[in-house]
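Bumping with the actual sequence this time:
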Amino acid sequence: VQLQASGGGLVQAGGSLRLSCARSGSTSTINHMAWFRQAPGKEREFVAGISRSGSTFYADSVKGRFTISRDNAKNTGYLQMNSLKPEDTAVYYCAEARLFSSYSPEKATSYAYWGQGTQVTVSS
């Protein structure tokens, strides 16, 4: 499985962006997928996750503002980000778990496949 994240950019506070995670190298249904982010000088942190069954999980800092989804027909995951804040500035990574692997949505170790990251910058 290869993942390609895109959709990042520069946006003003209060604006919106939609990130995409295009999946290739596999025709199987998307397994558990997540978005993480890493700001300069900080550790990578969980943002949102969607399980194979469709359950969603969010970090407290983005609840009510971000929505994770996927389109199995298009083999693509999404992260809709609304009401963006300067503190959302980071490189965003999409990730997917290997089938039948141990799974805790917020743990980076749950995910075997990672995209290259896309930069999101929110200006005040």
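The tokens above came from a reply further down the thread. The chain has a mean pLDDT of 95.
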